[in-house]
Amino acid sequence: MSTPRQHVTASGGSGAAPGPHAGSPHDPVPLWNIANILTVGRIALVPVFLVLLFVGDGHDIGWRLAATGVFAIAAITDRIDGQLARKHGLVTDFGKLADPIADKALIGAALVGLSMLGDLSWWVTGIIAARELGITALRFAVLRHAVIPASRGGKLKTLVQTLAIGVYLLPLPESVAPVAIGLMILAVALTVVTGLDYVVQAIRLRTGVRRSESETARAEDVPRVDVLGVDVAGVDVAGEGAAGEGAAAQDTPGDGRTVGEDAR
């Protein structure tokens, strides 16, 4: 008899059936799977990219093209690792956390490098870097409650950022400058909007956790009585009732005196 396969929901929100190598709920996904290895490899390419970018004062065409090539390879792995994770059921909490961090490391390094070379205004780098660092800190702050995966808006933001940076990196003629500027302005706008969306998600998550904890605490404080009449405090309600009936049965009929009065 075949066993049912576990369905893994993509981080963007759309569900997809895992591939033939997906594990069952009792077969945990290995941490060092191909998707996570690609993610770590993308992080390792960041210093390589920076070295190539600054060789020859950053304006040597050959080295600039080499830096652009490394940047493109690292950006492509972002698409590949996500697709592999969803297709083959390799989604892990580490991947959900490391993937956006790898994106931020690559994008941040490129923006800082371009600004240091004088090719990009520092205010653009400052806005994007502040947003990325803030969201990363927010992810770690709510990590013990849940992992906030990358949203579709966040992935679109990363795509536009990557395209804009790629145009800035390439040694293109001045006539292409308006295209690069337009893409970067769009990237900044998406960066701000998606950042606010992540903040809202984190607030809702934290509010839901507090509400759940409060409801659990109230449920634990309510005394309960079982079917035999014994409550959680150990008071035998049924026993007390029986004792009362026994005392009433011992009353002396006709003279109005109780057993206690006879004893006196």
From TrEMBL:
Q: Which InterPro entries did the record assign?
A: CDP-alcohol_PTase-I (IPR050324), CDP-OH_P_trans (IPR000462), CDP-OH_PTrfase_TM_dom (IPR043130), CDP_ALCOHOL_P_TRANSF_CS (IPR048254), Phosphatidylglycerol_P_synth (IPR004570)
**How does it sit in the bilayer?**
Multi-pass membrane protein
**Known EC number:** 2.7.8.5
Q: Where is this region: Disordered?
A: 1-24, 241-264
Which species is this record about? Rhodococcus pyridinivorans SB3094
Primary subcellular site in the record, as a coarse category: membrane
Highest taxon above the source species: Bacteria
Q: What is the lineage of its organism?
A: Bacteria, Bacillati, Actinomycetota, Actinomycetes, Mycobacteriales
Gene Ontology molecular function, alphabetical: CDP-diacylglycerol-glycerol-3-phosphate 3-phosphatidyltransferase activity
Q: Where in the cell is it found?
A: Membrane
Q: Is Nucleus given among the entry's keywords?
A: no
Instruction: Output the PANTHER family linked to this UniProt entry.
Output: CDP-DIACYLGLYCEROL--GLYCEROL-3-PHOSPHATE 3-PHOSPHATIDYLTRANSFERASE-RELATED, PHOSPHATIDYLGLYCEROPHOSPHATE SYNTHASE-RELATED
**Would the keyword DNA-binding turn up in this protein's UniProt record?**
no
* Transmembrane domains' residue ranges: 34-54, 176-200
Per the UniProt entry, what is one GO biological process?
glycerophospholipid biosynthetic process
Keywords from the named record: Lipid biosynthesis, Lipid metabolism, Membrane, Phospholipid biosynthesis, Phospholipid metabolism, Transferase, Transmembrane, Transmembrane helix
Concerning its family, UniProt says: Belongs to the CDP-alcohol phosphatidyltransferase class-I family.
Q: In which pathway does it act?
A: Lipid metabolism; phospholipid metabolism
GO CC annotation = membrane
Q: What protein am I looking at?
A: CDP-diacylglycerol--glycerol-3-phosphate 3-phosphatidyltransferase
